[in-house]
Design a protein that fits this description.
heterodimer; A: about 650 residues; alpha/beta; 5-stranded parallel beta sheet; 17 helices; B: about 250 residues; 4-stranded parallel beta sheet; about 40% helix; globular
Chain lengths: ~650, ~250
């Protein structure tokens, strides 16, 4: 056996704490090692060529590389082996950067550890077997989960390229949070005027299928061939037949709205049958099962159904609709499940819900919207125009008690509120901020404009809000003057943080996506792979990945779409056959591995364990569970690991 | 010895009624708890501004005494002692405020309560009980509320449960101290019968100021209030010793 050992300096990353020359020298006189070399950047083109030439010249048959983590560059070096027609699994990477140099202070220890890690890798690579890759056709369809602006943009881009798209949305209408807004910062153009054309484009594209009131229940398969099970909840109105005339709503037995409208955050009242937003898509009403008398008692004349049948002759209302389960087969998935806002009730001292004139940001967005509960007027709960408004920034973000991260958009929407409220009520406006973060195109200029309009900026976070004689008294320290002061307001707006939505958490659970510390979905690489995930074929866009404003979300959605198109365009997907295999002679059929498998890849048949190859991801948890050592992952089995440990200890 | 009480100097002088009422209700609940032997004054908030070193030594000595006697839990009825002991306990001894000690025994308290009484009570936690070592929401705690409810009284919905009473400000600048307390209780004068406290300093402060402001509402310790619900003799609870007298009808 001829083994080549290559050690990367990784600039100074490895060479700083590992004496590379010494290591190379050591392995030049090591059994089975034919050649040992070092290079400053092995992953560079020149580094790759070096290995390639050596393999050609010396006919090496196994390669050991001491470099960064295999998750980073295993693929790169496997590519080198493929070029010279050696099975790409005849390679082993010893992680000298993350597991050695970065975590070692002393150079001598570092060198020692590097040597033992490499010894382990050499012993292990000797037992590597040939594994052939499998080719699978890619289903030429895409599922986009989440119908906000990110989902809409991604769907449109993919549909433009001619692929079929399933757009899956939990709510009754697509549009997401952007549909709630009136104006967008910093240009103050109308959010619905730029969103609704996109929504109608979605409707007009025949290859985009919209599933509203739907959720993902289950996923099976691998990249290129995912099978998604969707639960579609009943709307009780047939979307195909409905024309959105609203006659059913007029004829509902409730003459006035009685239930808080969740699309206006409880600021207005609706009937049990309602259209979520005037520009909803699909534009058909939905019946709230918990509010409708028919569903509660069964004793309702069903005037809505009659009106629909007799007056407009559509017969769209169907009280017998049932929950449906739909199965779709897709090649790739885009997760754009968006965000939710921080519940400001948690910050007790600001008195949200306790004091009636403390509002959250989304409530103000709805008030500002011309389709909202007050038709664009800013009013206190008793219907007056406020004379003074306090805007508190960073509620729930940049706070060790709640969320450590910056929510990125709050400063800018606070400035937008400031501008619009000034315009509509001429109120005196105070901002309480920590820092103003206006880093975007035209953002700083907008900040300046708001300052010139006369808004007052106070650096300092209020300590508490009290209510006296219907006025809100905000207590704060102005950290620029060092004075503790109090100020009376008619209205206080809390700029609450952005948090990962419930849907994001659920989807992460179902699709087994990894999350970062703050609960947002984790991208594959923070700089170079911002839309891919650790699972191939699944991509992320929008606020599910982290707080973002609209331009950034749209950019990311388009990036996602181009990644998906490139992926689908390959038509065939090569899967690593790095999966578990079962030694049937040893298997006792105890079923322990079946219970631990997270991907449903194992099952028991005739008292023996069997594997569904398509589902196996080669994680190896079954192997660790097996008592009789009957199940192993190729090249990562019991034998190889023991040899590696022996090598390290040698 | 597993549990001991750390009375602190207030409870031996100005807040004797707090100490005796605590002892008596604990006896009713079947607990005989002894004092930590040879305890010293914790220094309150005054000593650290005079000498940090002495402050540290005094408190470390108190903790050391408790550890030597293998005491697991030190109960502190005074909020100031509670903070100082907790600061230096280093997890050697568990320091627990009397409020939470009673809260743990709420089921036992429930069994001893006699009749329901029509008294409206403000639970006033003061600033130091929950800051900075609070176990519950600093702005809206509930443990004292619950105990008072269990005892069959009505709890007043009071937003300033944990506002500072002014503390030593009342002694240095009486005018300012009065203002602070006036601001807190002014709007509620007609809405309550008793203020319940768990801090000796709050008690003194509120009582004096209420006299000056002519609020004429008694300020009692939580232990006395529990005692009233147990129908313990007025004299044993020292109710006649307060500045604003309170009589059980």
């Amino acid at each position: 056996m001829k083994i080549g050992v290559y050690i990367c300096h990784c600039g100074k990353n490895i060479a700083d704490k590992v004496d590379v020359k010494k290591v190379v020298e050591f392995f030049n006189n090591y059994p089975d090692v034919f050649i040992s070399r070092d290079y400053i950047f092995l992953c560079s083109d020149a580094g790759q060529n070096l290995i390639q030439e050596d393999i050609k010249n010396f006919k090496l048959d196994r390669i050991v590389i001491g470099s960064c983590s295999p998750t980073m560059h295993l693929k790169t070096f496997q590519g080198v082996l493929e070029k010279v027609k050696i099975n790409p699994h005849f390679i082993e990477i010893a992680n000298l950067r993350e597991q050695c140099s970065w975590v070692t202070k002393d150079k001598n220890y570092g060198t020692e550890k590097a040597v033992s890690l490499l010894k382990g890798a050499i012993e292990k690579v000797k037992y590597h077997e040939k594994i052939e890759r499998k080719k699978m056709p890619i289903a030429q369809k895409v599922a986009v989960i989440g119908g906000g602006i990110a989902g809409i943009q991604a769907s449109l881009d993919i549909a433009e390229a001619g692929y079929e798209v399933f757009l899956i949305e939990k709510k009754a209408t697509i549009g997401g949070h952007m549909a709630f807004f009136d104006k967008t910062f910093p240009t103050l153009d109308c959010a619905s005027c730029i969103l609704t054309p996109k929504m109608s484009e979605v409707r007009n594209k025949k290859i985009i299928k919209i599933f509203t009131l739907s959720e993902i229940k289950e996923i099976q398969g691998t990249a290129g061939n995912y099978i998604l099970k969707i639960i579609k909840k009943p709307r009780y109105v047939d979307e195909e037949k409905c024309i959105g005339c609203g006659i059913c709503i007029e004829n509902c037995v409730y003459k006035e709205g009685k239930f808080p409208n969740e699309y206006d955050f409880g600021l207005s009242l609706r009937k049990p049958i309602y259209i979520p937003l005037p520009y909803a898509l699909p534009l058909s009403p939905v019946i709230d099962k918990d509010a409708c008398i028919y569903f509660k008692t069964g004793k309702c004349p069903r005037t809505c159904e009659k009106a629909c049948k007799e007056e407009v002759k559509r017969g769209a209302i169907n009280f017998e609709q049932k929950e449906e389960e739909i199965e779709i087969n897709v090649g790739a998935i885009i997760v754009a499940t968006g965000y939710k806002t921080f519940n400001p009730e948690r910050v007790y001292e600001y008195g949200y819900k306790r004091y009636k004139n403390v509002f959250s940001s989304l409530e103000i967005e709805r008030m500002l919207s011309s389709s909202g509960p007050t038709k664009g007027e800013i009013l206190t709960r008793d219907g007056r125009k406020p004379k003074s408004v306090g805007i508190i920034h960073c509620v729930g973000s940049r706070d060790i008690n709640y969320n450590r991260y910056c929510s990125k958009v709050c400063c800018m929407y606070a400035l937008k509120f400031s501008y619009l409220i000034k315009e509509r009520t001429n109120a005196e406006i105070y901002h309480f901020y920590i820092d103003i973060r206006a880093s975007g195109k035209g953002y700083e200029e907008f900040y300046e404009r708001v300052q010139k309009e006369g808004a007052i900026f106070i650096r300092g976070k209020p300590s508490e809000i009290n209510e006296k004689n219907g006025k809100l008294i905000v207590k704060f320290e102005n950290t620029l003057t060092g004075k503790v002061q109090e100020k009376e307001f008619d209205m206080v707006i809390l700029c609450n943080a952005i948090e990962p939505s419930e849907g994001t958490k659920e989807i992460a659970e179902i699709l087994k996506l990894s999350k970062s510390e703050d609960g947002f979905l984790l991208e594959l690489h923070p700089k170079l792979e911002p839309v891919s995930t650790s699972i191939s074929g699944i991509f992320i866009a929008g606020c599910a990945q982290g707080p973002k404003d609209i331009p950034e979300t749209v950019a990311q959605a388009s990036a996602c779409a181009s990644k998906v198109i490139a992926f689908l365009n390959k038509k065939e997907y090569e899967i690593e056959n790095l999966i578990a295999y079962i030694d049937e002679k040893k298997c006792t059929g105890c079923g322990k591995c079946v219970n631990v498998c997270a991907f449903d890849a194992l099952y028991i048949e005739d008292g023996k364990c069997k594997i569904k190859e398509i589902n196996c991801k080669g994680c190896g948890i079954c192997s660790a569970t097996c008592f009789s050592n009957a199940i192993n992952v190729k090249n990562m089995g019991y034998k190889e690991i023991i040899k590696q440990v022996e090598g390290i200890l040698k | 010895m597993k549990e001991a009480i750390f009375p602190g100097c207030s409870l031996t002088q100005s807040a004797k009624d707090y100490y005796y009422s605590t002892k008596i209700i604990l006896r009713y609940l079947g607990k005989e708890i002894e004092e930590l032997p040879e305890w010293e004054c914790c220094g309150a908030t005054i000593l650290p501004s005079v000498s940090k070193k002495d402050f540290e030594e005094v408190n470390k000595r108190n903790i050391e005494r408790a550890t030597l006697l293998k005491i697991k839990r030190l109960i502190s009825p005074c909020s100031s002692c509670f903070i100082n002991l907790k600061k230096f306990s280093e997890n050697k001894v568990e320091i627990i405020h009397l409020l939470y000690y009673l809260y743990e025994m709420k089921d036992k308290i429930k069994l001893k309560v006699k009749d329901k009484k029509d008294l409206k009570i403000i639970p006033y936690y003061g600033c130091q009980t929950l800051r900075p070592f609070g176990k519950e929401n600093v702005w809206n705690p509930f443990s004292m509320d619950e105990i008072i409810e269990i005892c069959g009284f009505k709890v007043v919905n009071f937003p300033y449960k944990t506002k500072c009473c002014g503390g030593v400000v009342s002694q240095i600048e009486p005018y300012r101290g009065n203002e602070i307390i006036k601001e807190i209780f002014e709007d509620f004068v007609e809405k309550f019968d008793i203020v319940s406290t768990i801090c000796p300093l709050c008690r003194i402060n509120l009582e004096f100021t209420f006299l000056k402001l002519k609020f004429k509402k008694p300020v009692l310790y939580l232990t006395q209030i529990i005692g009233i619900s147990f129908e313990i003799n007025e004299r044993e609870l020292f109710l006649n010793k307060s500045l604003i007298s309170f009589k059980i009808k």
